[in-house]
Amino acid sequence: MGINSRTGKDLCVHFTAAAVNMATSSSHSAVRRVAIFGGTHGNELSGVLLVKHWLKHGEEIARRSMEVRPFITNPKAVEKCVRYIDTDLNRVFDNQSLSGDQKGKVPYEIEQARKINSLFGPKGSKNGYDVILDLHNTTAHMGATLILENSRDDFTIQMCKYIQTSMAPESCAVLLIEHPGVKYATTRSIAKHPIGIEVGPQPQGVVRADILRTMKNVVNYALDFMQYFNEGTEFPPCSLEVYRVLEKIDYPRNESGDLGAIIHPSLQDQDWKPLNPGDPMFITMDGEVTCYEGENTVYPTFVNEAAYYEKNQAFAKTEKVTLMAQALRL
Ligand SMILES: [Zn+2]
């Protein structure tokens, strides 16, 4: 399937009608194995607490048609309540790191990635888990967010649509991280259908009951969708509005690399809201304002995310895109 048109400022992308007509439904095999990952970042506590709870109370996430396995992915980081020990576990699931040909002392997270890949993968093989739900928190004001890696995966698009509809009236944005120049190599990427669940705002090392409840609801709706699918429910063709990552924006920095300005108050907590040409983005200690000079309206997300200061990212620019998925049935 291809993307055939972009229209003006809405930046809507549609699949061709011809391609949709060629096959009106896609058939998938039943979902047999699902993993729920918590603690990929050890200081994002909603996922850590939920997965630890479900390890003792598996009946809460059990669905009769499939195996559902909760798993703490970075136990040492969880124990220390830090994001990671040596390197970010959520960026090392590339073939080179997983293949084991790295020389010298192997960073803890790479050892861990290999272990996870052998338990739930191998990545890219038919033996990998069908679905991995990877639980994260953000300090940004993003609400419930589903992270989609592939714009052509009808199964996951249909699952996102089901979760979004079930969550209403609470918002549930979908962030598409597919990008020609950026490969994330996420922990969940070893599954056939990976999905990140990112809920915020919640400070690192803190757990809030409202954020925890939202995350729990998202997981349960995802499991319900898979159970209904396994039972033979047909899901009609759907469209899904997603925010596609365009570019990461760093803070203004001085000669020594220190922050030269911080997020402007009018951008703070405005994740998913339009940022129009001329709108303020940053403000210096002296009150000098930097404005957005792009040509098109964009939709910032991960605004002022604590974990991204080290990644030189103040926020990510996204555009709104509409994805289409064919009808889905077993
Ligand atoms: Zn995270």
TrEMBL record:
This protein's GO CC annotations: cytosol; nucleus
Keyword terms of this UniProt record: Cytoplasm, Hydrolase, Metal-binding, Nucleus, Zinc
UniProt cross-references to Pfam families, sorted A to Z: AstE_AspA_cat (PF24827), AstE_AspA_hybrid (PF04952)
Residues noted as binding Zn(2+) in the record, renumbered to the chain: 41, 44, 136
Gene3D superfamilies: 2.20.25.160, Zn peptidases (3.40.630.10)
Enzyme class, first EC level, given as a word: hydrolase
Source organism superkingdom: Eukaryota
Residue ranges of domain Succinylglutamate desuccinylase/Aspartoacylase catalytic in the record: 31-225
Localization of this protein: Cytoplasm; Nucleus
Ranges for domain AstE/AspA barrel-sandwich hybrid: 239-320
Signal peptide positions (record): none
Co-factor remark: Binds 1 zinc ion per subunit.
E.C. number: 3.5.1.15
Entry binding sites for N-acetyl-L-aspartate: 83, 198, 308
NCBIfam families linked: PRK02259.1
Similarity comment: Belongs to the AspA/AstE family. Aspartoacylase subfamily.
HAMAP family in UniProt: Aspartoacylase
Name this polypeptide is given: Aspartoacylase
